[in-house]
Structure formats: structure tokens, C-alpha cells
Amino acid sequence: MNRNDRMTLSYLLQTTSALSWIVVLIGLYMQNIPLLLISISFILIDKFTKLYLKKVSTSVQVQNEQATLKLFQGESSKLTFNIVNTGKLPIWNAEFRFSLNSNAVAETNNRFEESFHLITYSIPLSLSSRETKTLTVPIHARHRGATKVSRIEMVVEDLFGFGSTNCKLNDYKASEVLIFPQLIEVKDRKQSSIIKSGMATADYSLYENLSAPAGAREYVSSDSFNRIHWKASAKTSELKTKLYERSIEMKWIFILDVSVKRYNMPAQVSQHLETYISQLAFLCEKATKLGYAFEIHINLDPGGPSPYMILQSGEGRVHLSKALELLSRIDSSMPVVSHFRMEAMLKQNLYKRESVIVRVGENSVHQAESSLYNELEKKGSTCFEVVTSENGAFLRKLVKGEGI
Q1: Which end of the chain has fewer CB within 10 Å, C or N?
Q2: Contact of 108 with 81, CB cutoff 8 Å
Q3: DSSP structure class, residue 300
Q4: What is the spatial distance between Cα 289 and Cα 311, in angstroms, rounded to a whole number?
Q5: How many CB atoms lie within 10 A of CB 260?
Q6: Is the separation of the CB atoms in 373 and 342 below 8 Å?
């Protein structure tokens, strides 16, 4: 049911209506028929204006199905509103208004109001008696995030502009716009690590099993120099590149650390949050393309039964969509889970499994966190971290970090 929030009458109509009653008395006393007719006309205009505005405010409805639009940054789509006039009175001069968070913008010049985070749009509208009209509004995804279409209302003016009513359309089923993060490539750059049992070095790769050669192919300029297959190149007199079997690890665990750790200071959300989210989005898509199952752990408190943001293990395009949706809902205003609490919960969830673990976040690792990854390595997991440099982001074997 719509609620008539506010009816506004023009100052001219209010003043004229009040004076008309005095003029009626004067007209009766003087028995002046024209004066009586004029004053009664203004009284009737006032009454009919109020009645019209009251009726139309309860006869307008919005019919729609609750929906979620999923877009990547830079993409466009459409919002649809079905406006119904269920009454017998026509609506001649109205404005349909709705609001969106600024990370998604309606591609229209009819902006009614704009604040720091919220933009309200106004669209002119007229409806005949019992008419249904569909409004289609193009929207453009600007920044990652989630926003709902809110503050749905109709502002209706009477025919002569003597008054207006502002009614909220409470029957609207809120549509949501999810804007997925951009994908920032994370390169699988091989790194050398000293094996504890000796002084030999071993290469690690997240995507390939470097201990299982699978042949050779023609060399291209983007191939690393240390991947040249020299024996095959010598036989064919052409440069060849080594091929390896795909990694046998079939589950990846992503840990997104959004915090900045400062000595004797509460954990705060990193100013590079969007970069880390985009890197993780790329890794999720990469895992899906390779057919790997993956799960996500994020040290933010979503304010529900879960102690921190988590996506349970899964695979395939549907699971990827869930991952991107989770990343879209990350809000920098969410409380950061303390590293002590987060590490305790990760121990419970990860210690019993052998997996490939990838940490995404600032390269500053707390001493206790470093111990956690060392313990996971001892139990059979392989731990990587994403390192961001001037040449882009790449994976490297996670080593013991400096304590803070």
C-alpha cells in the first residue's frame, strides 16, 4: 500500500481559499450573486485539488519481479519499471523518482538530487485512466560494488499547478545491481626456493607440474628464456619451449587479507583494496578455466552468523558467479577481523587438508601468520602469495615474513 507522505498546496491557493470564505459571507450579506459564485469557485477548486491529489496517490503502483543485475565495470544494462494507474483519474503531470548508489549511474540527464553516495533521478510521466506504462532506464556500471534501487516515489501535480503530492511506492520489489570487479592478471612466474633437506633448488608453479615434462612446442617471444627446451631445439634447429603437465592439485584456497597491519594500531582496510579484489577475481576465473575447485576466506566481518566472509569450496561457472558476487559485496566500511582471531579460524578450517593456498593482500605478514603458513607447508599444503610490482602482479612461493 502506498503512503501519502506529503501533500503540498501553493501559497496562492491556500490564501485564496481562506479569503473565499470571508468573501462568501460578504456576498451573502450584500446578496451579490457574482461575488458568491467567484468565491465558491475558489473553494471548489481547493476541495477538488485536495481530493484529486489524495486519490491519485493511492492509485499508482509499480509492478515488477525482484531481480539482480550482474555487470562488470564498464558494462551497461537496463532497469525496467512497470507503472500502473489503477484509478479512474488521469495523471497529467507527474515525476517518477528513484535512487541509485553512485557506483552505478542511470544514463539520463534528469537528475533530481545528488549526494556523496546517492543519486536520485527524476523522469517525467503521464498516465491515462487504468493505463500501464513501462519505463526503461539504461544504467552504466562505474565501480565495483552492490547497490539497490531505492527511494521509489511519485510526485504528482494537479492540472493547474496549485498543488502536488509526494507518495512512496512501497509495493516496489527492490532490484539489486551487482558490479563485479575488474580482472587484474596475476602471472605464474616461477620462483626458486631452498629445500630444507639440502641445498638444491626447486621450481614451483601454481598452474603446472614442473616435475612432469609433457613435450615441447614452438618458441614465441613471450616465453621465458629458462623454459627453452635445448635438446629439442638442437634436434630441430628451431627454438622450442618446454611443456608441462597440468598441476595435479585440484583445490585452491584463496585467502584475501584486506588489512594494513601497523604496530600497536587496530587493523585497517588497505587503500589498495580494489587491486587485491581484482587480482583475486582473476585467480578465481583462472581456477574455473582450469577446472579446479576453490574456496575463499576474507578477514572482514559481514555482520551475520558467519565470523568472517567465506565462500565454501566449489567449481564451475556457477561457483565463479558466486565468487564474483561475494567480491562485489565487499565494503570497506565492514569491520576487519583481527589477525589473531582470523588465524585461529583458518587453523580450524585448513589444517586437516592438503591444498594449494594463495594469499592475496599486502606483503607485510605478521609473525603468527607466517607461522601458520609454515605449519600448513609441513602438513602437505603448498603456499603462494601474490606480489604486486611495477611490472604487474605475479605469484611466488610464500616464505617466512618479518614480524611486526
Answers
A1: N
A2: no
A3: B
A4: 18
A5: 17
A6: no
pTM of the model: 0.72
Residue 51, SS3 per DSSP: helix
Neighbours of 178 (CB within 10 A): 21
Query: What letter represents residue 335's amino acid?
Result: P
User: pLDDT (tens digit, 9 = 90+) per residue, 286-297?
Assistant: 989 888 899 999
Distance CA 280, CA 290 (A): 15
Q: Are 147 and 101 in contact (CB under 8 A)?
A: yes
Q: Which residues pair with 46 in a beta bridge?
A: none
Instruction: Tell me the β-bridge partners of 394.
Output: 187, 387
Name beta bridge partners: 242.
216
What are the cell numbers at 55? 486519490
Q: Which helix (H) or strand (E) holds 104?
A: strand 104-106
The strand pairing partners of 286, in sequence order, are: none
Q: Rounded to 5 degrees, what are φ and ψ at 43?
A: -65, -45
The distance between the two most distant Cα atoms of the chain, rounded to a whole number of Å, is 122
**Helix, strand or coil for residue 267?**
coil
In the prediction, which pLDDT does 221 show?
A: 65
Q: Are 259 and 268 in contact (CB under 8 A)?
A: yes
Between CA 107 and CA 118, with CA 113 as vertex, the angle to 5 degrees is 75
Q: What are 8's strand-pairing partners?
A: 164
pLDDT tens digits for range 211-244 = 445 566 675 665 655 566 666 666 676 776 765 5
SS3 399: coil
- Give the per-residue pLDDT at 282: 95
Look at the block and give the residue holding cell 489503477.
86
Q: Give the model confidence (pLDDT) of 64-109 as tens digits.
A: 777 888 999 889 998 888 888 888 888 888 888 888 988 888 887 7
Cα-based distances in Å from 141 to 21, 180, 229, 254:
56, 9, 46, 26
Q: Could you tell me how far CA 65 lies from the centroid of its own chain? A: 20
Cell numbers that stand for 353 in this block = 587438508
Q: Cell numbers 587479507 correspond to what residue?
A: 257
Decide: 140 and 122 in contact? Cβ < 8 Å.
no
